[in-house]
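Quick note —
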Amino acid sequence: MTSHSKGAPIYYMTARVAFKKKKKVHERVLWIVSVFDDPNDIRNFSPYTMHRIEQELYGKNTKSEKHVVIREILTKKFISHSNLTIDEHKKQHQK
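Predicted structure written out below.
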């Protein structure tokens, strides 16, 4: 078990998210809680967060393909430390 000082920081962030619905591109500002603070890392290594965003934007009954892009992180607030390091989080959810 790792100590709290070695764990990855957990952030509460607001992000500008773009998504396609009915052939139009829409943008919204959504909240995200993750140890990753880079939009590409969130997309690649945080499947729970991406699934929650897709459910919030499209709903659970959508049959079309869901395209969600995190454009930028607007605000970032430190919450706590994770028990795992950043590398351990990345290994946990590698594609």
